[in-house]
Design brief:
alpha+beta, 5-stranded mixed sheet, 48% helix, 12% strand, globular, disordered C terminus, DNA-binding
DNA sequence: GACAGGCC
DNA sequence: CTAGGCCTGTCC
């Protein structure tokens, strides 16, 4: 008997319930187990199938054991009676609607995207400008963007932007699809062009169609290659030259690779974020990093090309003897490559 | 100007 | 303890 579908439903329910009750860390705990369950390919028939998951404490263990033994979970059933779980889930898939707004809407009797669309026709101020854009493009923003289309966006952006830029995220890791388009713009000290000006240029080219948020350094927007193509989520980030290498490393991910990378930096006495690297104690301050590879070298790490950046397994000290490198470097297995292709943002 | 909500 | 910062909108 495969309890995987029941387990997914029960844990998703409890995740929504904790979110509705603003129990951030409880929600996080369910989310962590849910993510691993979704990645787990095979059926779940005994507790041993999930015992090795990260973040399995006594509370979640008890709940899973109950579901495996009885086929249902009392806590999840109670949550379903107390909250419109399905409605909260559906509404939160809309860009700009989080737990609070979703709960507010369900309390007004709005429980589906269709109902929300009808309500917003009558009362536009039910949502903010950005949320209305999210609602308009609800289906489109849930779609994934094929790699081949990402290449086209890159061409368009390079054509219109007056500064060097790169699409980062899972696209740079060569994932076969991406969730959105993350663009880093390299800003030299001499720069006089504002982000607002660049946004205007992209709007006049009829590429950028909606602005969700626009500040001095960051723009969140929607874009389209042409009138008939699917609208996509676009993020533009202005990054000063001296921070660019750190920005590239950070926004290229993957998340797990970043966590491992920052942990390793800590062991070497440095704290790392998306802008810079600082010495912890009496370490020397790092020199300017012109490109990503400089950061690897400075920390004594073997450079990892973006498409191999998956998790801690790629964090390897530089070999003392270059000849040994051939034997020390693990070969990318098909299974690893598959994980990478999932292309989480 | 502080704070909350949401996103990355 | 589980990130921290950016942007928007609201309230006073």
């Amino acid at each position: 008997m495969d309890y995987r579908p029941l387990l997914l439903d029960a844990l998703e329910t409890l995740f929504q319930k904790e979110q509705a009750e603003k129990q951030r860390f409880k929600a996080l705990a369910y989310q962590q187990v849910l993510r691993q369950l979704k990645q787990h390919p095979g059926p779940i028939s005994t507790y041993e199938d999930v015992a090795h998951f990260k973040g399995m404490g006594p509370k979640i263990e008890q709940k899973i054991r109950e579901l495996l033994a009885t086929g249902s979970l009392a806590a999840a059933e109670r949550a379903k009676a107390a909250y419109p779980i399905q409605a909260l889930h559906e509404l939160q898939r809309c860009y700009g609607i989080g737990p609070t707004k979703a709960r507010e809407l369900t309390e007004q009797g709005i429980t589906t995207i269709d109902a929300l669309r009808a309500a917003v026709e009558v009362t536009p101020r039910l949502l903010t400008d950005a949320q209305r854009v999210g609602l308009t493009h609800y289906e489109a923003f849930l779609e994934r963007i094929p790699y081949s289309e990402m290449v086209e966006h890159e061409d368009i952006l390079r054509h219109y932007l007056p500064l060097p830029c790169e699409i980062v995220g899972s696209y740079r890791r060569r994932a076969e699809s991406s969730g959105d388009i993350d663009v880093l713009i390299r800003v030299p000290p001499s720069n006089t062009i504002s982000l607002a000006q660049m946004v205007k240029t992209l709007q006049e080219a009829h590429y950028l169609t909606d602005v969700l948020a626009l500040g001095a350094h960051k723009c969140m927007a929607a874009c389209q290659r042409d009138e008939s193509s699917t609208p996509r989520r676009l993020d533009l980030l202005m990054v000063p030259e001296e921070e660019y290498a750190y920005g590239m490393l950070y926004f290229t991910g993957s998340d797990r690779f970043n966590v491992a990378f920052r942990q390793y930096a800590l062991e070497r006495g440095y704290t790392l974020n998306e802008k810079t690297m600082k010495p912890l104690a009496d370490q020397p301050a790092p020199p300017p990093m012109n490109e990503e590879a400089d950061i690897f070298t400075f920390l004594g790490l073997t450079y990892v090309p973006p498409n191999e950046r998956m998790d801690a397994r790629q964090i390897l000290p530089l070999p003392k003897d270059a000849n040994k490198r051939i034997h020390k470097r693990p070969v990318l297995s098909a299974a690893f490559a598959k994980i990478n292709r999932q292309g989480e943002e």
